[in-house]
Structure formats: structure tokens, C-alpha cells
Amino acid sequence: MLLENKTAIIYGGGGTIGGAMARAFAAEGARVFLAGRTPATLDTVAARIRDAGGLVETARVDALDADAVNGWVDSVAATAGSVDVSVNLISHDALFSPMIEMPVDAFAASMEKVARTFLITTQAAARHMIKQGSGVVLHFGGSDSGNRMPGLGNAQIAFDMVEAMRRQWAAELGPHSVRVLSMRTGGVPESFPDIPETAQIKQQLVDATLLKRAATLTDVGRVAAFLASDHAASLTSTQVNISAGALVD
């Protein structure tokens, strides 16, 4: 198993992407700790993992609260003996409007939320990873430096900020054998609600690929598990593109 005896933390673990990663990590032998603010969604993911024979625990944690995050991560380390993988998947406050029309306060608040949660959660994991001399911090979403699409509002900017933080974290944590990576998918149709309003968007995501198939939740989970494993030991400070050719490096 790729992640046998590893401990993985996932913030936003009750979401679609978080659930996919959690199931894949558990299937590869990891003990998974899911954090979020909605116990019901966390419990749903945890039940599927347990039904498949995996190890999982859940906790209600606000990823914007430094004391709560640090206290929880310390408890995970004390219980499991290590913190090997940390993934932050909490949702951004997306504002899809032209920048010239963007309310300044709303934009600033959304950027502060992203910066705060990624700094808090990475700091909490990094303290333990530095001590143990190993670990993986994994981001999801990535950025597109060649973006030419108007109307993305703060969404692309938020991803770019996370990527800038990823590069800095990789430089600072690399000497401690801690790797920092991100995944970019170009969109996962399965993660969209299965309603008529999303049908066209899903088809557009598929049509934009070279393989004429978009990344699936299974793809996301399998690649995430590989990146978190020792098989990817030489990978850090980079984006891993699983967009089926929709995004060009």
C-alpha cells in the first residue's frame, strides 16, 4: 500500500474532492483525519471509508481559527504519532465579476480568508513535519499563469496566491525533506451538482480536453495518493496537471 502507516489530515474532508482524496488515502493504508465545520458531511465520508475497512476519524474544526487548528493537529500527532500529509480543501468565497466592478471590501475579505487558512493549516502541519523530517503538504486547484479568460473575478487570483505560497513553503521546508505540491484538474464534472443547469458546463469541461474525458474523482484520489507517497519523493514545488490536456503548462 502506498500510504501504509501514514497519517493524513484533510480540511474540508466532507466535500466531494475531500471525500475522494480521503477514500483513496484510506484505501492505500493511511489513517485519515477529516476536519470541517459540518459534522453530517464528514460522517457521510467517514462511513464509506469504514465500510471499506479504512481508518478514519472526524472533527469539527474551523480552519480559520489558528488556536483550533493547532490544537487539533497537535492532538492528531499525539494520537497517530505523526503528521505525514496535510491537505486544505476549504471552499473559497468566489466572486465572479469584472475586477472593475468588484466591491473592494468583499475582494479583500475573500483574499484574507484564503491567505489566513492556508497559512494557519500549513504552519500547523509544518511544525510537526520539520521535527519528524518528512511530510507532504498538498494543495488542490492550481493556477493558470497564461490565463486569458475574463470574468473569473477573485477565483484565479486566489489560486495564484496559493501557488505563490506553495513555492515559498517548498523553498523553506525542502531542507527538512518536506514536500509541497499542488494539483490542477481543469474542473471535475463529477463534483458538480447533477442538475440540468450544470449539464452544459460539464460538457464544456470535457470538450476542452485533449482526451475528451475530464478528470474524475477517482483520478483525483489516485493521483493525490501517489503524490503523498514515497513514490513521488523527488516531486516538490510544482503543479501536477491532471486536466487531460485542457490546461497547457
UniProtKB/TrEMBL annotation:
Alphabetical UniProt keywords: Oxidoreductase
Family affiliation:
Belongs to the short-chain dehydrogenases/reductases (SDR) family.
Q: What is this protein called?
A: SDR family oxidoreductase
Q: Which species is this record about?
A: Actinomadura meridiana
